[in-house]
Amino acid sequence: MPDASEPAAQDLSEQRARLTTSIKLAMRPHGGKRDSLLHNGSTMAAMAATTVATVLPVDYSTWARVAAGVATFLIAVARALDFGARWRWHLNMRSRYAVLLDRVDQAALLPAGEQAGALHRIYEDLFKVRSLERGIPGVSAFSNSLPGGS
Asked: Distance between CA atoms of 14 and 101, rounded to whole angstroms?
């Protein structure tokens, strides 16, 4: 006869499904494609503008100055908004959530008596990963003013 304190297999299956859905929803904003495009695109545009400023003949010095100004502006914006760090941060967050998904799948392979404890530990780690959400580069300077900020 099963122990009344142990959750039923169906309850554990439903809990795994809820946990998987929750992790996938948390993972969704971490595609990082926009920040990747902005980081790499602004770098390529700044390099192109610098090249134009360098190779233009002396007769087009006004256009060379404009190209140099565009390059300077693009570099300043890219540094201020730090799209490269944001892109890497999104990739890291996505990987953290992917590890949690793997652990949920792994928990299904454990004996029924160990599954509840494994799911509990995954929930604890999900809380830790979600607490990193406010650390996005370029905006985290204001996170201390939020409730629960340290």
From this structure: 15
